[in-house]
Each structure stands twice: as C-alpha cells, then as structure tokens.
Design goal:
Elements lengths: L2 E6 L8 H10 L19 E10 L2 E10 L7 H5 L4 E3 L5 E3 L9 H5 L6 E3 L4 E3 L5 H5 L5 H4 L6 E5 L4 H6 L5 H7 L3 E4 L4 E9 L4 E2 L4 E6 L5 E5 L5 E7 L3 E7 L6 E6 L5 E7 L5
Amino acid sequence: MGKVFVFDAAKCNGCRNCQLACKDEHVDNEWAPWAKPQPDTGQFWTRVEERVRGQVPKVRVSYTVRMCQHCGDAPCMAAAPEAVYRRDDGLVIVDPEKARGLRELVEACPYGAIYYNEGLDLPQKCTGCAHLVDAGELPHCVDVCPHGALRFGDEEDFAEEIAAATALVPERAEAARPRVYYLNAPKRFLAGVVVDLEADEVVVGAKVTAENLATGEVLAAEADEFGDFWFRQVGKAAWRVYVEAEGYLTRVLEASTAEEDRNMGPVALYKAE
C-alpha cells in the first residue's frame, strides 16, 4: 500500500523544525539517484504556512505544512512520464538526470511544490527523504518534529487517521489522490464579547446560540469570565446569533463566516424593563 505522511494541525505550534531540517538534509548534499543539492535560498521543499485569522482582538494563528503531496495520480508524472516516477513505496521522484530543462514541471504541480533550480537547470521537490527511508529511517522533517504533528509510515498503520483526514486542497483530491493527509485542518471561527454598556462591564455567563441559516444546525456557547464567547471549527456559512442573559433583553444578530473568520466585536445587552 505504500508510505504516507500525516499532518495534524492541532499539534503544530509553528516551530518550523521541519522546514529547517529539510534545508539541513538537502542543501549542499547530493543524494543520488534521488536528488541533487537543494539551493540554500529560494526553495522550501517542506515549509510551514502561517495564517493569522480573525480581527483584533479575536485573533488566532494556524499553521499548515506544505510539501509535495506524493500523489497517487501525480500531475507531474503525467506531464513528464519519462522524467518523473513513483517508487514502489509511493514516493514520487523527479529524476535529477532525466528532468533537466523541464521547466514545465513547475506549472504542472497544482500544489506549488516543484521549484526550478536555475543553476542546475533542473526542477526539484521533496523526495520524502528517500535515501533515509531506504536506510530504515524517517524523513528528516518527521524525525525532528517535537510534537508528533508530522508523521510518516505505512498506509495501513494510519488507517484511522486517514479515515478522519482531509486533503490540503479538497477540490483537487479526487483527481490527484494526494498521499499527505491533514487532520484538524483549521475551519472558521465566530466570536465576540457580551457587554453591558450602562454598567461598563462584561456579562459573564450569557447564553449564545448560533443558527446556521443554510442547514439549521444550532451551536451553543457561554460567555466566559471575560465576557468572551467562541464558536470554533465552524463551517463557511451565514449565521443568526441569539445572545441572552437573565435580566436582559435578548439580542438577535446576523454574522457570516463565508469569507473569513468573524469577530462580532462587543455585543451590547440592555436591561429588561
């Protein structure tokens, strides 16, 4: 069944050890027949993408590892079958001898994982550290991850994780069949703070309900000791939000997470007469 990578976004703190390890392993090192040396600048065969989400003060930072997806139906293989091949273990390799001059491979990859080395006149990408795998070791990026956010191994050993995973770009998954699986990929959040402007204080314990206007799904939260409420890992949708607390009039507002994470800001409640 071959080898796969599994990345768990919930365990990644953005330390970039994997990114640095890739450089350490491949810059100035030739691993024949799998790869020529990676240049020290301009290429990141493994890189950590950082996204700052939301609006101040409700902000979250998420991290995603981006690398060659070692696709089951790799577009780069289709573009240059004479120069790109899949090993028996599933790792996709750009042959460093046969691929010289094939600049079109950069555009063939829908994940932006292939770079062009102008000095060597060669397209290059992650090899899955094939030289280490052949020696019975883990890819360097996986080996240095301190939190187990990035793992590698036999597909059958990750059956449970694969069943729960998503693809880096879901709309491309059916065609390319990527073999890097993503767990706990960040979704949207909807947040705010409940306040009593007349009393100049937050309303602790306020009940907040969010109704998905498309599906009817209803989520519930409670304002914490700071008056904050959060709905995490929600879908892209329009929401009707109900905010209520004892002794106050209920507020009904609308908000959308269709385009981005949403901080609703201060939601003011007013005393019931």
